[in-house]
Amino acid sequence: MDPQVQSALSSAGLQTYKDLLMVPVTDLMKVTGLSFKQVEQVLTNAASAWRSPPLTALQMKLSLSVHCLSLGCPLMDELLKGGLPVGGVTELYGQSGAGKTQIALQLCVSVQYPQDQGGLDSGAVFICTEDSFPVKRLQQLIGEQHRLRPQLTALTSQINFSDNVYIEHAADLASLRLCLSQRVPLLVARGLVRLLVLDSIAALFRSEFQASDWMERNKQLISFSSKIKDLSQQFNLVVLCINQVTDVMDQSGGSSGPSPSLGLCWSNSVMVRLRLTRLPQWVSEGGQHSALRRLEVEFSPHLPPHSLPVAVWRGGVRGLQ
């Protein structure tokens, strides 16, 4: 091993192969000051050199701690067993006005808190494909942090939340490809972000492909979904992809209700699928009024199908008892 690399690892307190393999790539870069290529080479050497008895699936599950990003609401975190998983793609779909972007914005704030407060001590990159970024709403959420987390007033006053949200606008698939292949990896490699939000994945495919172009559309969709999945796993990111809905026709010609856009090709790359539905009822709290919503776990490898009533307040989306 290169003496400089060995010295950096030793100074960071990483003495064994197991220590190295249990730390995310971005965290290794941060604590050691090594480049991405150096860390990648160290992990390759560690994986090939570490010899241990085979593990059962249960032993592996117990030995690995599953990191999640908190949504900043205890009830929503309880529904999701801690929050959105790190190293996987979460899809949030629903009709317009359901509150999908609201959840994405509060995650951009939550990710900046330390890990012991449910965050990842890092920033977020927010890719817009349709509407302009809702900067006023983000500022409102930031301004409410001292009320939502009064026990952390000293900490919230030290975090410059606005400086750690990086905004990208992708008006076409070429711009999105450039963003995912060059700009996002650069931000991650510098240790600046651990959350990637794509709002929304379906918009560009709807605008650039006709019904007759289904074969090329699926080819491009598979390429993009693979890239997003690789980013989440390679850099240990939390990835939230907001998706639109489309009406599915049943055999009788009627509508069977809204379903997430993009179909099976996209679904195969999603680890967790969440559905957000706006309901006709209204709720009130502290002089504020909100349409009632339902946040539902549609599928997940570690969560049972379950739902929670939620509402949108000035401080963000919150679960209701």
TrEMBL record:
Recorded superkingdom: Eukaryota
Subcellular location, principal: nucleus
RecA family profile domain span: 65-245
InterPro entries: DNA_recomb/repair_RecA-like, DNA_repair_Rad51/TF_NusA_a-hlx, HHH_XRCC3_RAD51B, P-loop_NTPase, Rad51_C, RecA_ATP-bd, XRCC3-like_C
Any single Gene Ontology cellular-component annotation: replication fork
Location in or out of the cell: Nucleus
Any one GO BP annotation for this protein: t-circle formation
Gene Ontology molecular-function annotations: ATP binding; ATP-dependent DNA damage sensor activity; four-way junction DNA binding
Gene3D superfamilies for the chain: 5' to 3' exonuclease, C-terminal subdomain (1.10.150.20), P-loop containing nucleotide triphosphate hydrolases (3.40.50.300)
Sorted UniProt keywords: ATP-binding, DNA damage, DNA recombination, DNA repair, DNA-binding, Nucleotide-binding, Nucleus
PANTHER family: DNA REPAIR PROTEIN XRCC3 (PTHR46487:SF1)
Family from the record: Belongs to the RecA family. RAD51 subfamily.
Protein's UniProt name: RecA family profile 1 domain-containing protein
The organism of origin for this protein: Gouania willdenowi (Blunt-snouted clingfish)
Gene name per UniProt: xrcc3
